[in-house]
Amino acid sequence: MKRSFMTSLPDTSGAFLTASRIILRHGGNMVRASYNKAVDAHTLFLDVEGEEAALDAIEESLTAEGFLQNESRVKVVLIEAEVPNQPGGVLPVLEALNQRNVSISYLSSQAAGKEYAPLKMGLYIEDSAVIDELLVELSAICPVRILDYDAGEKKLDNTVFYISFADEMRQLLDLTPEQTKEFVYYANLVMQQLDEKGEPYGKVFEYVSRFAHFVAEHGGAGYDCRITCQKLTDRVAVTLIEPPCGSNITVLEELNTKALLVIDGGFTCYEAETMRLLRSLFPNYDARKKEMLLTHSDSDHAGICRHFQKIWCTRRTADCFAGEHVGLPSPREENLNMLPYYRLSTLITDYVPPALSHLCLLDSQPCDDALPLSKVGEYRFGDLAFDVYQGNGGHVPGETVLVDDRHRIAITGDDYINAVDMLPAQKEFNRLAPYLARSVNQDSAKYRAILQMLRHMLADDWLLLPGHGAIVPREQRL
To answer: Which domain holds residue 247?
Structure first.
């Protein structure tokens, strides 16, 4: 273990030598020393590693020598803060330190012509109770990395853990300073929840980290999608895009007019990859008439919304987006235990709710929530005539299923997913995602009732286009 000492040495030759011999005599290893005679001729900061008994003996000997006084076993935290490279950029950090009576034992900074300047500081903190609050406050001002600290206090260990975790995510996901602050806030909230329940945080944050790395690794060249094309009717063909994670992107093409209906859009973090793929699959894509339809409001379905002037959805789905625009919790966040996990997920995947001015409502009649699914409207594309059904909130409020009885084709969103036939990457992602969403469905009992109703409605000879997984052929029963 390691312990930090603030020693008060006489301004005479051999004082540091004496302290060093004491440390060596008791089997300690001095791993850091900080001294500036111009600032204080007597104060020397020492970090010493060793067994607890050895550190106690070192402390006792230093005290007997007169080098330690007034509980001078101190907390020293070495941090690196990324402060804006602009006039006064460092002032908020220094003001936070001053307000909490925190002294700086070490300071190093060099702007090097970049937008942000790394500022390394050794913080000498007399009152250990302020460390946790100070680190949280500093991380809200600018990105902070904890380089070294005197470990051993559970609360400090937790704080250092989640701030360091947020910095790892910042570098992995290229988060902005504002996004990093938000990540720190919700990581702290997760830590508090787990601490209050007496639950270990290691496994949860391991899964969050794996989730984030998985998302990052499957962008760019890693965005390897399975693409299935099939003619549905005389006038309409479907192209089903299955990304390694996130929802399917289902594209209906009107074969005569070349108009497109894009159903759901995957994660926002793959927006560039998805748009490149659409342009490669559909010649003259940008000149075509195209609209979008969202089966529900989850963040893994709304990734390319900003590229469409008309986005069809139910009123409840639109209400979810409207609430998010004014800072209200989404349906996934109304449960306070789920809120921080979902917010971390949206930060990792760069989610942005669609513009409300682009939303068009599918509803022409109210939903009957006494039923698992009830008809709320109609929608036509080419020679497909869909009845629009809305669920009563099993998966999420506003969940939508489109059913064409004549052609026996259904678009199920996440009210039915094809777990039997998924990409290996999607299966792996599905094992990680619940650790952030905490629950895939808003109300599991209602979801089971919806699924049962779908099995009754779509019993024989139906072709299904699910929210995740491959097209379900007519011969495969639900």
So the answer is: 223-466
